[in-house]
């Protein structure tokens, strides 16, 4: 039986944690501890070390298993971060990336964050059936494949895989610097104008390869974005698959009627 608490001062009064309280009013003990930990996190501040499981167990009068469950959820939510051999620390705020027809580079720079990339793959390959259908080309037509780890202030936060119709961008491999913005290169070198895109966002778990490249726990939820973009001629020219750490990034957009 999980530890539970019928009353808890931090969980009453319709505050920000009200949505976590079931209708019967009985709060799992780990959740009550999680609420207390949120207050402690606010007091400690970004980068501060969290007390040990033993110390927290004594402080809240619960078992270490209960502490472990509460801390684990806060790690998954990006409120805390674990450093192997060092302990658990208060994480910084999530990076906010706008959902817009713009590049990753431009979005982070507007937020005062230094973007970066590490090249993994740069090649030309046949499109295949599924990619060819998305880009409206034959399966044997060639596409340029660019795969890069995405950085924010030198922290690995995602993995981006872009496929471009090779015939529309002759010589791209020779002129593109993988450390720079791809969209800037397409705009400046090839005169590309983005007219629109279809984008889909879902939550997934990273594959072992992806987790290794991003440097994250395979059990950590990830945000996966699929995008197909086109220009004024309405012909698709790129498909992008972007995988982002759910504990470090969030996305925003403005909706208007």
UniProtKB/TrEMBL annotation:
Pfam family, any one: UTRA
SMART domains, sorted: HTH_GNTR, UTRA
Keyword entries, A-Z: DNA-binding, Transcription, Transcription regulation
One GO process term, biological-process aspect: negative regulation of DNA-templated transcription
CDD domains in alphabetical order: WHTH_GntR
Record-level Gene Ontology MF annotations: DNA binding; DNA-binding transcription factor activity
Name the record gives this protein: GntR family transcriptional regulator
Organism: Amycolatopsis albispora
């Amino acid at each position: 039986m999980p530890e539970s608490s019928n009353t808890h001062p931090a969980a009453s009064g319709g505050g920000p944690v009200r949505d976590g309280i079931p209708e019967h009013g009985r709060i799992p003990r780990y959740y009550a501890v999680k609420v207390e930990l949120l207050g402690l996190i606010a007091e400690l501040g970004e980068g501060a070390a969290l007390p040990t499981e033993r110390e927290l167990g004594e402080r809240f009068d619960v078992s270490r298993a209960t502490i472990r469950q509460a801390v684990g959820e806060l790690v998954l939510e990006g409120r805390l971060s674990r450093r192997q051999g060092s302990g658990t620390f208060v994480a910084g705020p999530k990076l906010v990336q706008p959902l817009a027809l713009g590049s990753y580079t431009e979005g982070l720079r507007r937020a005062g964050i230094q973007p970066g990339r590490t090249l993994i793959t740069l090649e030309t390959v046949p499109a295949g059936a599924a990619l060819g259908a998305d880009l409206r080309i034959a399966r044997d037509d060639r596409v340029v494949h660019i795969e890069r780890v995405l950085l924010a202030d030198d922290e690995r936060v995602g993995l981006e895989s872009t496929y471009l119709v090779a015939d529309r961008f002759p010589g791209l491999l020779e002129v593109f610097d993988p450390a720079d913005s791809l969209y800037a290169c397409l705009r400046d070198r090839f005169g590309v104008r983005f007219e629109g895109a279809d984008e889909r966002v879902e939550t997934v778990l990273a594959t072992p390869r992806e987790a290794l490249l991003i440097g994250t726990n395979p059990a950590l939820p990830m945000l996966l974005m699929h995008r197909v973009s086109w220009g004024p001629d309405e012909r698709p020219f790129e498909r992008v698959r972007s995988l982002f750490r759910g504990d470090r990034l969030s996305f925003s957009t403005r909706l208007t009627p």
